[in-house]
Design brief:
Helix content of chain B: under 10%
Structural class of chain A: mainly beta
Distance between the termini of chain B: 37 Å
Largest sheet of chain A: 6 strands, mixed
Oligomer: heterodimer
Order of helices and strands of chain B: EEEEEEEEEEE
Distance between the termini of chain A: 41 Å
Number of strands of chain B: 11
Order of helices and strands of chain A: EEEEEEEEEEE
């Protein structure tokens, strides 16, 4: 079946450092979405990528969709303590979304 | 405008019991999906309903069932609860396919 993998599982950074999480699919995706979940909270939609090679930016966040539509990345520039949480990618395979296991980000002040 | 609302927020049940979880989507959203999130893992897809019809089903046993009502609210039912059913159950609604999903706060179910 479809599988979505994410690395790293955990990332600890000093405030101000950059952070990147990578998402890989076993098969080609129709599109991919990214969500952020704060500790004790629920997933919050960040963005959707649809086109091969697409790059989208939201302030300090940069999202990329691979040329083959099988991988994606989220890069945060100059992390802040408010960036703490778990970042999930969710791949759409035509019927429903499959979530990756997430990358948990800790930001040390 | 209210977001996705779920009830109850917390629930403790005994093995073998039955549970019903409820979800009200954002006004105007006709698609409702249910996810199970075990601690430390990503949400796992259980069901999707659109216009009261089941549009997708994840890899869950028949003990799990759901339905969507004319007002687009939804219920998730789980029979014969097992300890392994303990999880955060998330409901998500969206306006249409291809859009991002809006999640509710979830129902934290503990089976003892």
């Amino acid at each position: 079946g479809q599988q979505v993998m994410q690395i790293p599982q955990y990332q600890h950074v000093q405030e101000g450092e950059d952070f990147t999480t990578y998402c890989n699919s076993s098969t080609t995706l129709s599109n991919i979405q990214w969500y952020k979940q704060r500790p004790g909270g629920h997933p919050v939609f960040l963005i959707q990528l649809v086109k091969s090679g697409e790059v989208k930016k939201q302030k300090r966040l940069t999202f990329q969709f691979g040329e083959a539509k099988k991988n994606s990345s989220l890069h945060i520039t100059a992390t802040q303590t408010t960036d703490v949480g778990t970042y999930f990618c969710a791949g759409f395979y035509g019927q429903n979304f499959v979530f990756g296991p997430g990358t948990r980000l800790s930001v040390l002040p | 405008d209210a977001g996705v609302t779920q009830s109850p927020t917390h629930l403790i049940k005994t093995r073998g019991q039955h549970v019903t979880l409820r979800c009200s989507p954002i006004s105007g959203h006709k698609s409702v999906s249910w996810y199970q999130q075990v601690l430390g893992q990503g949400p796992q897809f259980i069901f999707q309903y659109y216009e009261k019809e089941e549009r997708g089903r994840g890899n869950f046993p028949d003990r799990f069932s759901a339905r969507q009502f004319p007002n687009y609210s939804s219920e998730l039912n789980v029979n014969a609860l097992l300890l392994g059913d303990s999880a955060l159950y998330l409901c998500a609604s969206k306006l249409q396919e291809g859009r991002g999903a809006f999640f509710g706060q979830g129902t934290r179910l503990t089976v003892v």
